[in-house]
Structures are given as structure tokens and as C-alpha cells.
Amino acid sequence: MIDHHTGRDVRVVLLDIEGTTTPMTFVHDVLFPFARMSLPGWCRAHAGSEQYRQVLQRLAEEHAADRRTGNPVPEWCDATPAEADVSLQAYARWLMELDRKTTGLKLLQGLIWEEGYQSGALRGDVYPDVPVAMRRWRRAGVAPAIYSSGSELAQRRLFGSTIHGDLTTLIAGFFDTAVGPKQSTSSYVEVASRLTVEPTEILFVSDVTPELAAAAAGGCGTVLSIRPGNRPQPNADAYPHVRTFDEILP
To answer: How far is 36 from 124, CA to CA, in rounded Å?
Structure first.
């Protein structure tokens, strides 16, 4: 389907989440506080589990990498399980305060949010034009996909629990930073490979221009999402922009 913004034949619309499909307020005022509040209880409930061990190992590796770069990170001691737990929580809170998007933190947050969605304490939030557009694109043979710094698990739960119903059946793929950083060109080439399309057949929509620059360098079409509350972006005039998904492949 030809996109009138870029003139490209589009087979996949690749979507960021925060500031694109979902209000920033949901992420910053609902999801992030829920993860901070629930962190101690989650650690108590899952201490010794495989999930906990995976989080602990990943955060320990990231803490060591931070130490090597000279970052003033909290102390880390894992001589005993209790000390390791204190270190995990202190480092996780430090990452949250800095809004770092490390794979270990996103894994931890995703597991906490998973329980929130399962209990009904959390419910996914998307702009009203999002499900309408996804269904329109599907009817036209164009597949929506998601690429976000939030974990794939968190993405699935967000789109699976909206007031508009379960949107995951409309989405061809979920990608997180396991495929690479969002400001790295190779990440978009990898996403295209996994979706079995050419990068030139992807239209990437995000509210962050450095991400759009990386996608464009990989051959993707790009559109800047301008939603209420989004942060001003450098070099914004270099990209076509939309204020609603009604404008994308109408």
C-alpha cells in the first residue's frame, strides 16, 4: 500500500509505543510508579525463582558494565542472598530514577507489570485511533508491528488488555531492545529480517527523531508522531509528521 507521506509501498507499519500508540502519561504516571511501588513485594514473592535469578544475573552484569565506565552506581554485594536482594533493588531504583532503558531493568519491569495486568490492577492504554488504524491496515494487507524499549512481554500485555479489546491478534511482531538499541541502524535491518520484508517496505512511526534517523539510515520510511505531551524533538522538520493514525495509510 502506498504511503502518501513517503511515496513508498508499505507492507509493515512499525510502531513505537510511548508517545506514539500510548499517552506518555500512562507510561510515566501509571506503569513506572507501579513498578517502583511493587518492586519490594515482587522480590519477596519471587526470591529463588528462575525469573528472579535471570533478573539478578542481568542486573549484576549491567551494574558491572556501569562500574567499568565510571558511573557512580550504588554499591553491589551478593555475598549472601539478602545482600544480593538489597543490591538488586537499590540498582533497579537507581536505573528507574534515571529513566535508563537497560535490558535487565525492562525485564524486571515487564515481569512486575505482567502480574499487574493479570490481577487487573493494570490495563493497557492506547489512543482511540490506534485500533481503528490497525484494523484498517490489516484489511489493506499491511501488518502492524511494535518496536519499543519496553520488554516484549510488557508490550503484549499492554496491547492485550485495552478497553478496545485484545489488539495482539492484529500485530505481526513485537520487538524490544533484544534486537538492538532503537537508535542503532542495524536494529531496523534486524527487525525487517525477522518480519521477512525489506527495510524499504517498513514505515516506522516514533516520537523520537534520533530513532527515526537510525531507521531511515537502514532504508525504512519514517514518520514523526506528534501527540499531546510529547517532548520537542531536534531536527523535527526533516520528517513527515502525523497527529493521529487516521493520517497513516488512510
So the answer is: 18
